[in-house]
């Protein structure tokens, strides 16, 4: 696959180190780019086939920029796989509830059952969602 890994500017060096350390495993291409949620994504077009998200649901102020970015990045055939750890402390349950409520305005969600997760890494508090744009 041709892969773009993204994070904020201050984490680009770490992304590059990880790419270098794992280049022997790469059979396609991999590049690191800055992606700040809520900002312009035209350089990431055309829409990717897959978006992999891990632990992106963590503070309330990020929800709307994250959702805007997902709407701007996805096409009708883009599959988003979202993995997150369910946290029960503080405002986390409310933030998670709000995220999925807002997400369902434009996207369809399918929770991947725990028995379909990798046996070695599955955990009751780790959830994986398959997400697609709603068809117009």
Automatic annotation (TrEMBL):
<dbReference type="InterPro" id="IPR019410">
    <property type="entry name" value="Methyltransf_16"/>
</dbReference>
<dbReference type="GO" id="GO:0008168">
    <property type="term" value="F:methyltransferase activity"/>
</dbReference>
<keyword id="KW-0949">S-adenosyl-L-methionine</keyword>
<dbReference type="GO" id="GO:0032259">
    <property type="term" value="P:methylation"/>
</dbReference>
<dbReference type="GO" id="GO:0005829">
    <property type="term" value="C:cytosol"/>
</dbReference>
<dbReference type="InterPro" id="IPR029063">
    <property type="entry name" value="SAM-dependent_MTases_sf"/>
</dbReference>
<dbReference type="GO" id="GO:0032991">
    <property type="term" value="C:protein-containing complex"/>
</dbReference>
<protein>
    <submittedName>
        <fullName>Protein-lysine methyltransferase METTL21D</fullName>
    </submittedName>
</protein>
<dbReference type="Pfam" id="PF10294">
    <property type="entry name" value="Methyltransf_16"/>
</dbReference>
<keyword id="KW-0489">Methyltransferase</keyword>
<keyword id="KW-0808">Transferase</keyword>
């Amino acid at each position: 696959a041709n892969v773009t890994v993204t994070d904020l500017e201050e984490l680009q060096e770490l992304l590059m180190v990880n790419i270098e350390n794992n280049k022997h495993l790469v059979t396609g291409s991999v590049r690191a780019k800055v992606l700040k949620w809520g900002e312009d994504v035209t350089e990431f077009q055309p829409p990717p086939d897959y978006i992999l998200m891990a632990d992106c649901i963590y503070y309330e102020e990020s929800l709307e920029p994250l959702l805007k970015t997902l709407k701007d990045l996805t096409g009708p055939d883009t599959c988003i796989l979202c993995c997150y750890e369910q946290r029960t402390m503080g405002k986390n349950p409310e933030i998670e509830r709000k995220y999925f409520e807002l997400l369902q305005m434009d996207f369809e969600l399918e929770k991947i059952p725990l028995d379909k997760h990798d046996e070695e890494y599955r955990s009751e508090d780790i959830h994986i969602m398959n997400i697609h744009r709603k068809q117009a």
